[in-house]
Amino acid sequence: MSYEWAIQTAVHSRLKGDSTLMAMVKGVFDSVPQVIDAGVAADYPYITLGEDIHLEWDTDTEQGSDCAITIHVWSRYRGRKEVKEIQGRIFDMLHRASFTVTGYNLVDCFWIQSDSFMDADGLTRHGVQTFRIIIED
After folding, report:
1. Which region holds residue 79: left if phi is over 0, alpha if psi is between -120 and 50, else beta?
2. 3-state SS class at 97
3. What is the reported pLDDT for 47?
4. Burial group, residue 132, by CB count within 10 angstroms (0-12, 13-18, 19+)
5. What is the C-alpha to C-alpha distance for residues 16 and 126, in angstroms, rounded to an integer?
6. Which ranges of 25-128 does DSSP label H, i.e. alpha helix?
7. Domain annotation for the chain: domains and CATH numbers
8. Could you list the pLDDT tens digit for every one of the 137 residues in the chain?
9. Are 106 and 3 in contact (CB under 8 A)?
10. Are 107 and 58 in contact (CB under 8 A)?
11. 8 Å CB contact between 105 and 137
């Protein structure tokens, strides 16, 4: 398994495995169900795993990866409350957390930044968070 996929799978599993978070959202997706694909679109609010950047993090004796992964929250709630509460739970689940990245040793996971704004459609609140994840073989 590539380290990129191992990190994405670990984050996805960590979020989907939290009953508190799952009570707040309708799903955690890599690819959001659309009417054109499955006949039914995803209900709001939901989370998508977004962009990621991976950099070499090798030492003289270890190989590793330094990753920045972006997590998106999508809501149709009027106001920012829902997005910010979901982002707060994601922060609680990932910042300085210890979790399994299959095939690798998790060195650290920590929050870098968050943002929330109205999406271009004028209806959807969009939250964006970035976390840094460092792993080694």
Report:
1. left
2. coil
3. 98
4. middle
5. 19
6. 35-38, 81-94
7. 3-136 (3.30.2000.30)
8. 588 999 999 999 999 999 999 999 999 999 887 767 767 778 999 999 999 999 988 888 888 889 999 999 999 999 999 999 999 999 999 999 999 999 999 999 999 999 999 999 999 999 999 999 999 98
9. no
10. no
11. yes
Cα(63)–Cα(98) distance, integer angstroms: 20
64-75 sheet: strands from edge to edge: 28-29, 46-56, 64-75, 125-136, 105-118
CB environment 106-121: b (16+ within 10 A), e (fewer): beebeeeebebeeeee
Which residues have C-beta within 8 Å of that of residue 77, sequence separation ≥ 6?
Answer: 44, 45, 83, 125
Close Cβ partners of 91 (under 8 Å, ≥ 6 residues apart): 111, 114, 129
Q: Rounded to an integer, what distance in angstroms lies between the CA atom of residue 113 and that of residue 87?
A: 11
Q: Six-digit token pair at 46?
A: 């939901």
